[in-house]
Design brief:
The chain is α+β, with helices and mostly antiparallel strands. The termini are far apart.
Length: 438
Amino acid sequence: MASDLKTKIFYGLCVFSFFLGTTSAAFFEEKYEFGNGKVNFFWIAVVIGFWLLALFFFRNIRKKERERAYKTIREARAVDSAWEEEKMARRIAEVFFKFEEAWGHFDIYALKSCATENYYQLLVMEMGVLKRRQRQNFALIPQIRDINILLARDESDNEKDLVVAEILARMDNVLIDTENSEMLLANYDYFRQFWVFRRENDIWKVDAVRSDLERSPVIESSLKGFAQRNGFYYDPDFSQVVIPDKGALFSKTKFGKSQTDNHIIGNLGGRIVEFFTYESAPGKKRRVTPGSDEKIRMLEELENPYGNSGNAAIPAISCGSGYAVAQAILPTRYYDILIRRRGSFIDLAPRGLKRYKGRECRFGDYISLFADSRDDINDFPLATDEFLEQIKGFPTGLNIEVVGSFLYVYSRNQSKVTYEKMLDILKLALDKICSRAA
Protein backbone atom coordinates (compact mmCIF):
# COMPACT_ATOMS: atom_id res chain seq x y z
CA MET A 1 0.00 0.00 0.00
CA ALA A 2 3.06 2.28 -0.11
CA SER A 3 2.21 3.99 -3.41
CA ASP A 4 -1.40 4.52 -2.32
CA LEU A 5 -0.21 6.11 0.93
CA LYS A 6 2.15 8.48 -0.89
CA THR A 7 -0.59 9.55 -3.26
CA LYS A 8 -3.07 10.18 -0.44
CA ILE A 9 -0.51 12.16 1.60
CA PHE A 10 0.33 14.29 -1.42
CA TYR A 11 -3.34 14.95 -2.13
CA GLY A 12 -3.81 15.95 1.50
CA LEU A 13 -0.92 18.41 1.39
CA CYS A 14 -2.28 20.03 -1.76
CA VAL A 15 -5.74 20.45 -0.26
CA PHE A 16 -4.29 21.75 3.03
CA SER A 17 -2.10 24.31 1.25
CA PHE A 18 -5.04 25.54 -0.80
CA PHE A 19 -7.23 25.86 2.30
CA LEU A 20 -4.50 27.60 4.31
CA GLY A 21 -3.67 30.00 1.50
CA THR A 22 -7.25 31.07 0.82
CA THR A 23 -8.07 31.36 4.55
CA SER A 24 -5.03 33.52 5.31
CA ALA A 25 -5.70 35.72 2.29
CA ALA A 26 -9.28 36.29 3.44
CA PHE A 27 -8.12 37.00 7.01
CA PHE A 28 -5.56 39.62 6.02
CA GLU A 29 -7.92 41.22 3.55
CA GLU A 30 -10.48 41.69 6.32
CA LYS A 31 -7.89 42.89 8.86
CA TYR A 32 -6.12 45.36 6.60
CA GLU A 33 -9.12 46.26 4.46
CA PHE A 34 -7.31 45.82 1.14
CA GLY A 35 -5.14 42.99 2.46
CA ASN A 36 -1.45 42.57 3.04
CA GLY A 37 -0.02 42.20 -0.45
CA LYS A 38 3.17 40.46 0.63
CA VAL A 39 1.35 37.89 2.77
CA ASN A 40 -1.27 37.24 0.11
CA PHE A 41 1.40 36.89 -2.57
CA PHE A 42 3.31 34.42 -0.38
CA TRP A 43 0.33 32.11 0.11
CA ILE A 44 -0.70 32.36 -3.52
CA ALA A 45 2.83 31.33 -4.46
CA VAL A 46 2.63 28.39 -2.01
CA VAL A 47 -0.65 27.18 -3.53
CA ILE A 48 0.64 27.50 -7.10
CA GLY A 49 3.87 25.77 -6.10
CA PHE A 50 2.03 22.80 -4.61
CA TRP A 51 -0.18 22.37 -7.67
CA LEU A 52 2.79 22.58 -10.03
CA LEU A 53 4.54 19.99 -7.87
CA ALA A 54 1.41 17.82 -8.04
CA LEU A 55 1.41 18.09 -11.81
CA PHE A 56 5.07 17.05 -11.93
CA PHE A 57 4.43 14.26 -9.39
CA PHE A 58 1.67 12.58 -11.39
CA ARG A 59 3.30 13.16 -14.77
CA ASN A 60 6.37 11.38 -13.40
CA ILE A 61 4.24 8.44 -12.22
CA ARG A 62 2.53 8.16 -15.62
CA LYS A 63 5.92 8.35 -17.32
CA LYS A 64 7.21 5.42 -15.25
CA GLU A 65 4.07 3.41 -16.04
CA ARG A 66 4.60 3.94 -19.76
CA GLU A 67 8.35 3.24 -19.60
CA ARG A 68 7.78 -0.24 -18.17
CA ALA A 69 5.39 -1.12 -21.01
CA TYR A 70 7.47 0.45 -23.79
CA LYS A 71 10.56 -1.41 -22.66
CA THR A 72 8.74 -4.67 -23.43
CA ILE A 73 7.55 -3.26 -26.75
CA ARG A 74 11.06 -2.19 -27.82
CA GLU A 75 12.44 -5.63 -27.03
CA ALA A 76 9.59 -7.41 -28.83
CA ARG A 77 9.63 -5.30 -32.01
CA ALA A 78 13.24 -6.34 -32.68
CA VAL A 79 11.98 -9.79 -33.68
CA ASP A 80 8.26 -9.18 -34.36
CA SER A 81 6.92 -6.33 -36.56
CA ALA A 82 3.49 -6.56 -34.90
CA TRP A 83 5.03 -4.74 -31.91
CA GLU A 84 6.02 -1.61 -33.86
CA GLU A 85 4.75 1.34 -31.80
CA GLU A 86 3.27 3.42 -34.62
CA LYS A 87 1.58 0.43 -36.21
CA MET A 88 0.17 -0.63 -32.82
CA ALA A 89 -1.15 2.88 -32.05
CA ARG A 90 -2.87 3.02 -35.45
CA ARG A 91 -4.45 -0.39 -34.86
CA ILE A 92 -5.73 0.60 -31.42
CA ALA A 93 -7.31 3.77 -32.84
CA GLU A 94 -8.77 1.83 -35.78
CA VAL A 95 -10.36 -0.73 -33.47
CA PHE A 96 -11.71 1.99 -31.19
CA PHE A 97 -13.54 3.84 -33.98
CA LYS A 98 -14.73 0.67 -35.69
CA PHE A 99 -15.98 -0.78 -32.41
CA GLU A 100 -17.96 2.35 -31.48
CA GLU A 101 -19.61 2.56 -34.90
CA ALA A 102 -20.45 -1.16 -35.03
CA TRP A 103 -21.95 -1.09 -31.53
CA GLY A 104 -24.29 1.78 -32.41
CA HIS A 105 -25.58 0.05 -35.55
CA PHE A 106 -25.77 -3.52 -34.17
CA ASP A 107 -23.19 -4.58 -36.76
CA ILE A 108 -22.02 -7.92 -35.40
CA TYR A 109 -19.93 -8.65 -38.51
CA ALA A 110 -17.84 -5.51 -38.03
CA LEU A 111 -17.43 -6.36 -34.35
CA LYS A 112 -16.19 -9.83 -35.21
CA SER A 113 -13.31 -8.32 -37.20
CA CYS A 114 -12.04 -6.24 -34.27
CA ALA A 115 -12.95 -8.32 -31.17
CA THR A 116 -11.56 -11.64 -29.95
CA GLU A 117 -13.87 -14.63 -30.17
CA ASN A 118 -14.39 -14.59 -26.41
CA TYR A 119 -15.34 -10.90 -26.32
CA TYR A 120 -17.42 -11.25 -29.49
CA GLN A 121 -19.65 -13.88 -27.86
CA LEU A 122 -20.14 -11.53 -24.91
CA LEU A 123 -20.99 -8.58 -27.18
CA VAL A 124 -23.57 -10.59 -29.14
CA MET A 125 -25.45 -11.35 -25.90
CA GLU A 126 -25.25 -7.73 -24.77
CA MET A 127 -26.58 -6.54 -28.12
CA GLY A 128 -29.45 -8.99 -27.69
CA VAL A 129 -30.37 -7.42 -24.35
CA LEU A 130 -30.13 -3.91 -25.80
CA LYS A 131 -32.44 -4.87 -28.67
CA ARG A 132 -34.95 -6.49 -26.33
CA ARG A 133 -34.96 -3.27 -24.27
CA GLN A 134 -35.79 -1.50 -27.55
CA ARG A 135 -32.83 0.81 -27.20
CA GLN A 136 -29.93 1.91 -29.36
CA ASN A 137 -26.66 3.35 -28.09
CA PHE A 138 -24.74 5.64 -30.46
CA ALA A 139 -21.22 7.05 -30.10
CA LEU A 140 -21.35 10.26 -32.15
CA ILE A 141 -18.31 12.31 -33.17
CA PRO A 142 -15.76 10.16 -31.28
CA GLN A 143 -12.35 11.78 -30.86
CA ILE A 144 -9.25 10.24 -29.32
CA ARG A 145 -7.20 12.68 -27.29
CA ASP A 146 -4.48 10.32 -26.11
CA ILE A 147 -3.44 6.65 -26.15
CA ASN A 148 -1.04 5.30 -23.53
CA ILE A 149 0.11 1.69 -23.40
CA LEU A 150 0.27 0.78 -19.71
CA LEU A 151 1.01 -2.94 -19.89
CA ALA A 152 2.63 -5.15 -22.52
CA ARG A 153 3.33 -8.86 -22.35
CA ASP A 154 5.26 -10.65 -25.10
CA GLU A 155 5.04 -14.46 -25.03
CA SER A 156 6.61 -17.13 -27.21
CA ASP A 157 3.06 -18.07 -28.24
CA ASN A 158 1.73 -15.00 -30.12
CA GLU A 159 -1.84 -15.89 -29.15
CA LYS A 160 -0.91 -15.06 -25.54
CA ASP A 161 0.55 -11.62 -26.31
CA LEU A 162 -1.22 -8.86 -24.40
CA VAL A 163 -1.46 -5.07 -24.42
CA VAL A 164 -3.50 -2.85 -22.08
CA ALA A 165 -4.06 0.64 -23.51
CA GLU A 166 -5.42 3.65 -21.64
CA ILE A 167 -7.60 5.67 -24.03
CA LEU A 168 -8.63 9.22 -23.24
CA ALA A 169 -11.40 10.19 -25.64
CA ARG A 170 -14.42 12.38 -26.15
CA MET A 171 -17.70 11.60 -27.84
CA ASP A 172 -21.41 12.24 -27.76
CA ASN A 173 -22.87 9.19 -26.00
CA VAL A 174 -26.56 8.96 -26.96
CA LEU A 175 -29.09 6.39 -25.72
CA ILE A 176 -32.36 6.16 -27.69
CA ASP A 177 -35.65 4.46 -26.85
CA THR A 178 -36.48 3.06 -30.31
CA GLU A 179 -40.07 2.16 -29.36
CA ASN A 180 -41.04 5.76 -28.53
CA SER A 181 -38.27 7.58 -30.48
CA GLU A 182 -37.24 9.19 -27.19
CA MET A 183 -33.74 10.28 -26.18
CA LEU A 184 -32.99 8.76 -22.79
CA LEU A 185 -29.45 10.06 -22.36
CA ALA A 186 -27.04 12.41 -24.15
CA ASN A 187 -23.56 13.08 -22.74
CA TYR A 188 -20.72 14.83 -24.53
CA ASP A 189 -17.65 14.71 -22.37
CA TYR A 190 -14.15 13.33 -21.93
CA PHE A 191 -13.81 9.81 -20.54
CA ARG A 192 -11.01 7.37 -19.78
CA GLN A 193 -11.18 3.65 -20.52
CA PHE A 194 -8.80 0.71 -20.42
CA TRP A 195 -8.81 -1.52 -23.50
CA VAL A 196 -7.28 -5.00 -23.43
CA PHE A 197 -5.85 -6.27 -26.73
CA ARG A 198 -4.76 -9.78 -27.64
CA ARG A 199 -3.39 -11.27 -30.86
CA GLU A 200 -5.76 -13.57 -32.68
CA ASN A 201 -4.52 -15.03 -35.97
CA ASP A 202 -1.66 -12.53 -35.68
CA ILE A 203 -4.07 -9.55 -35.59
CA TRP A 204 -4.51 -7.30 -32.54
CA LYS A 205 -8.13 -7.46 -31.34
CA VAL A 206 -9.91 -6.02 -28.31
CA ASP A 207 -10.60 -8.57 -25.57
CA ALA A 208 -12.19 -6.41 -22.86
CA VAL A 209 -13.04 -2.79 -22.04
CA ARG A 210 -13.18 -1.31 -18.53
CA SER A 211 -13.99 2.10 -17.10
CA ASP A 212 -11.66 3.82 -14.64
CA LEU A 213 -13.93 3.32 -11.61
CA GLU A 214 -12.38 1.83 -8.48
CA ARG A 215 -13.62 -1.65 -7.54
CA SER A 216 -13.23 -3.91 -4.53
CA PRO A 217 -10.64 -6.60 -5.39
CA VAL A 218 -12.39 -9.12 -3.11
CA ILE A 219 -15.81 -8.58 -4.69
CA GLU A 220 -14.37 -8.47 -8.21
CA SER A 221 -12.47 -11.74 -7.79
CA SER A 222 -15.57 -13.39 -6.34
CA LEU A 223 -17.82 -12.20 -9.15
CA LYS A 224 -15.39 -13.47 -11.77
CA GLY A 225 -15.30 -16.80 -9.93
CA PHE A 226 -19.10 -17.02 -9.99
CA ALA A 227 -19.15 -16.18 -13.69
CA GLN A 228 -16.44 -18.72 -14.54
CA ARG A 229 -18.08 -21.56 -12.60
CA ASN A 230 -21.36 -21.03 -14.45
CA GLY A 231 -19.99 -20.30 -17.92
CA PHE A 232 -20.96 -16.62 -17.72
CA TYR A 233 -19.02 -13.41 -18.46
CA TYR A 234 -17.96 -10.65 -16.09
CA ASP A 235 -18.40 -7.21 -17.70
CA PRO A 236 -18.99 -4.70 -14.87
CA ASP A 237 -19.83 -1.57 -16.88
CA PHE A 238 -22.18 -2.78 -19.62
CA SER A 239 -25.46 -2.67 -17.70
CA GLN A 240 -25.49 1.16 -17.63
CA VAL A 241 -27.00 1.32 -21.15
CA VAL A 242 -29.66 -1.31 -20.40
CA ILE A 243 -30.56 -0.13 -16.90
CA PRO A 244 -34.26 -1.00 -16.36
CA ASP A 245 -36.75 1.84 -15.90
CA LYS A 246 -40.10 0.06 -15.62
CA GLY A 247 -41.80 -1.82 -12.79
CA ALA A 248 -42.06 -1.32 -9.05
CA LEU A 249 -38.35 -1.84 -8.41
CA PHE A 250 -37.01 0.45 -11.15
CA SER A 251 -39.67 3.18 -11.07
CA LYS A 252 -37.15 5.70 -9.65
CA THR A 253 -34.51 5.16 -12.35
CA LYS A 254 -32.99 8.37 -13.69
CA PHE A 255 -30.73 8.00 -16.70
CA GLY A 256 -27.33 9.50 -16.10
CA LYS A 257 -27.78 9.37 -12.30
CA SER A 258 -29.01 5.89 -11.36
CA GLN A 259 -26.30 3.26 -11.53
CA THR A 260 -25.77 -0.43 -12.09
CA ASP A 261 -22.52 -2.25 -11.34
CA ASN A 262 -20.96 -5.68 -10.72
CA HIS A 263 -22.50 -6.92 -13.96
CA ILE A 264 -22.42 -10.54 -15.14
CA ILE A 265 -24.10 -11.91 -18.28
CA GLY A 266 -24.48 -15.41 -19.68
CA ASN A 267 -26.65 -18.07 -21.25
CA LEU A 268 -28.81 -20.31 -19.08
CA GLY A 269 -30.74 -23.00 -20.92
CA GLY A 270 -30.96 -20.88 -24.06
CA ARG A 271 -32.02 -17.74 -22.14
CA ILE A 272 -29.86 -14.66 -21.57
CA VAL A 273 -29.46 -14.00 -17.86
CA GLU A 274 -27.78 -11.11 -16.06
CA PHE A 275 -26.71 -10.26 -12.52
CA PHE A 276 -25.98 -6.74 -11.31
CA THR A 277 -26.34 -4.29 -8.43
CA TYR A 278 -28.66 -1.30 -8.75
CA GLU A 279 -28.87 2.05 -6.98
CA SER A 280 -31.41 4.68 -7.99
CA ALA A 281 -29.48 7.51 -6.28
CA PRO A 282 -25.86 6.39 -5.75
CA GLY A 283 -23.01 8.36 -4.23
CA LYS A 284 -20.10 9.52 -6.32
CA LYS A 285 -17.79 6.71 -7.44
CA ARG A 286 -14.04 6.99 -6.99
CA ARG A 287 -11.76 6.72 -10.00
CA VAL A 288 -8.33 5.12 -10.13
CA THR A 289 -5.35 7.49 -9.89
CA PRO A 290 -1.94 7.10 -11.58
CA GLY A 291 0.55 5.12 -9.51
CA SER A 292 -1.99 3.96 -6.92
CA ASP A 293 -2.16 0.38 -5.71
CA GLU A 294 -5.70 0.28 -7.15
CA LYS A 295 -4.32 1.13 -10.61
CA ILE A 296 -1.63 -1.56 -10.30
CA ARG A 297 -4.20 -4.11 -9.13
CA MET A 298 -6.53 -3.18 -11.97
CA LEU A 299 -3.81 -3.78 -14.57
CA GLU A 300 -3.11 -7.18 -13.04
CA GLU A 301 -6.82 -8.00 -13.18
CA LEU A 302 -7.00 -7.01 -16.85
CA GLU A 303 -4.39 -9.63 -17.73
CA ASN A 304 -7.19 -12.17 -17.12
CA PRO A 305 -10.47 -10.20 -17.35
CA TYR A 306 -12.67 -13.31 -17.46
CA GLY A 307 -10.97 -16.17 -15.63
CA ASN A 308 -8.54 -17.63 -13.10
CA SER A 309 -10.94 -17.06 -10.21
CA GLY A 310 -13.08 -20.17 -10.46
CA ASN A 311 -12.49 -21.25 -6.86
CA ALA A 312 -13.16 -17.83 -5.32
CA ALA A 313 -15.87 -17.77 -2.68
CA ILE A 314 -19.05 -15.77 -3.31
CA PRO A 315 -19.73 -13.30 -0.51
CA ALA A 316 -23.00 -11.45 -0.08
CA ILE A 317 -23.18 -8.66 -2.66
CA SER A 318 -22.93 -5.23 -1.09
CA CYS A 319 -24.42 -2.29 -2.99
CA GLY A 320 -24.96 0.39 -0.33
CA SER A 321 -28.58 1.44 -0.27
CA GLY A 322 -29.42 -0.40 -3.49
CA TYR A 323 -30.39 -3.88 -4.63
CA ALA A 324 -28.77 -7.05 -5.91
CA VAL A 325 -30.66 -8.16 -9.04
CA ALA A 326 -30.81 -11.30 -11.20
CA GLN A 327 -32.52 -10.89 -14.56
CA ALA A 328 -33.67 -13.17 -17.39
CA ILE A 329 -35.34 -12.64 -20.77
CA LEU A 330 -38.64 -14.54 -21.10
CA PRO A 331 -40.39 -16.05 -24.14
CA THR A 332 -43.68 -14.36 -23.21
CA ARG A 333 -44.74 -10.88 -22.05
CA TYR A 334 -46.63 -9.59 -19.02
CA TYR A 335 -47.54 -6.07 -17.92
CA ASP A 336 -46.29 -6.15 -14.31
CA ILE A 337 -46.56 -8.89 -11.68
CA LEU A 338 -44.80 -8.71 -8.32
CA ILE A 339 -44.25 -11.44 -5.71
CA ARG A 340 -42.91 -9.64 -2.64
CA ARG A 341 -41.73 -11.12 0.62
CA ARG A 342 -43.48 -9.43 3.53
CA GLY A 343 -41.20 -7.48 5.83
CA SER A 344 -43.65 -5.50 7.94
CA PHE A 345 -47.27 -5.31 9.02
CA ILE A 346 -47.94 -2.51 6.52
CA ASP A 347 -47.69 -3.92 3.02
CA LEU A 348 -49.07 -1.39 0.55
CA ALA A 349 -49.51 -2.11 -3.14
CA PRO A 350 -47.02 -0.35 -5.46
CA ARG A 351 -48.47 2.37 -7.64
CA GLY A 352 -50.51 0.99 -10.54
CA LEU A 353 -50.72 -2.56 -9.12
CA LYS A 354 -53.53 -4.38 -7.39
CA ARG A 355 -53.13 -6.84 -4.52
CA TYR A 356 -54.59 -10.32 -4.96
CA LYS A 357 -55.13 -11.63 -1.46
CA GLY A 358 -57.21 -14.54 -2.70
CA ARG A 359 -54.24 -15.95 -4.60
CA GLU A 360 -51.91 -15.64 -1.60
CA CYS A 361 -53.97 -18.21 0.35
CA ARG A 362 -51.93 -19.86 3.09
CA PHE A 363 -48.76 -17.97 2.06
CA GLY A 364 -50.18 -14.55 2.95
CA ASP A 365 -48.17 -14.32 6.16
CA TYR A 366 -44.88 -14.03 4.29
CA ILE A 367 -45.74 -13.36 0.62
CA SER A 368 -47.78 -10.60 -1.03
CA LEU A 369 -48.94 -10.86 -4.63
CA PHE A 370 -49.55 -7.78 -6.80
CA ALA A 371 -50.34 -7.43 -10.51
CA ASP A 372 -51.42 -5.03 -13.19
CA SER A 373 -55.18 -5.29 -13.82
CA ARG A 374 -54.47 -6.28 -17.45
CA ASP A 375 -52.55 -9.40 -16.41
CA ASP A 376 -54.39 -12.70 -15.89
CA ILE A 377 -53.04 -13.66 -12.48
CA ASN A 378 -54.77 -17.04 -12.62
CA ASP A 379 -52.65 -17.98 -15.63
CA PHE A 380 -49.33 -16.83 -14.13
CA PRO A 381 -47.16 -19.93 -13.49
CA LEU A 382 -45.37 -18.39 -10.48
CA ALA A 383 -48.62 -17.56 -8.64
CA THR A 384 -49.28 -21.21 -7.78
CA ASP A 385 -49.18 -22.98 -4.45
CA GLU A 386 -46.50 -25.32 -5.79
CA PHE A 387 -44.10 -22.53 -6.71
CA LEU A 388 -44.77 -20.42 -3.61
CA GLU A 389 -44.09 -23.47 -1.46
CA GLN A 390 -40.77 -24.03 -3.26
CA ILE A 391 -39.53 -20.48 -2.66
CA LYS A 392 -40.64 -20.48 0.97
CA GLY A 393 -37.25 -21.82 2.05
CA PHE A 394 -35.24 -19.14 0.25
CA PRO A 395 -33.74 -16.22 2.18
CA THR A 396 -36.15 -13.56 3.35
CA GLY A 397 -35.97 -10.39 1.33
CA LEU A 398 -35.89 -12.15 -2.05
CA ASN A 399 -38.60 -10.76 -4.35
CA ILE A 400 -39.71 -11.60 -7.88
CA GLU A 401 -41.08 -9.19 -10.47
CA VAL A 402 -41.99 -9.74 -14.12
CA VAL A 403 -42.22 -6.64 -16.32
CA GLY A 404 -42.72 -6.99 -20.07
CA SER A 405 -40.50 -9.86 -21.15
CA PHE A 406 -38.04 -9.46 -18.25
CA LEU A 407 -37.96 -11.53 -15.08
CA TYR A 408 -36.24 -10.00 -12.03
CA VAL A 409 -35.19 -11.66 -8.79
CA TYR A 410 -33.94 -9.03 -6.37
CA SER A 411 -33.12 -8.37 -2.75
CA ARG A 412 -32.15 -5.51 -0.50
CA ASN A 413 -30.97 -7.82 2.25
CA GLN A 414 -27.41 -8.36 1.02
CA SER A 415 -26.27 -9.96 4.28
CA LYS A 416 -28.16 -13.15 3.43
CA VAL A 417 -28.22 -13.19 -0.37
CA THR A 418 -25.55 -14.10 -2.93
CA TYR A 419 -25.62 -14.37 -6.71
CA GLU A 420 -25.51 -18.15 -6.22
CA LYS A 421 -28.80 -18.12 -4.27
CA MET A 422 -30.36 -15.78 -6.81
CA LEU A 423 -29.30 -18.12 -9.63
CA ASP A 424 -31.12 -21.01 -7.92
CA ILE A 425 -34.43 -19.16 -7.73
CA LEU A 426 -33.95 -17.78 -11.26
CA LYS A 427 -33.60 -21.32 -12.59
CA LEU A 428 -36.71 -22.40 -10.74
CA ALA A 429 -38.78 -19.47 -12.03
CA LEU A 430 -37.53 -19.88 -15.62
CA ASP A 431 -38.41 -23.57 -15.63
CA LYS A 432 -41.97 -22.78 -14.58
CA ILE A 433 -42.55 -19.94 -17.04
CA CYS A 434 -40.80 -21.56 -20.02
CA SER A 435 -42.54 -24.90 -19.56
CA ARG A 436 -45.90 -23.11 -19.56
CA ALA A 437 -44.96 -21.13 -22.69
CA ALA A 438 -43.91 -24.31 -24.49
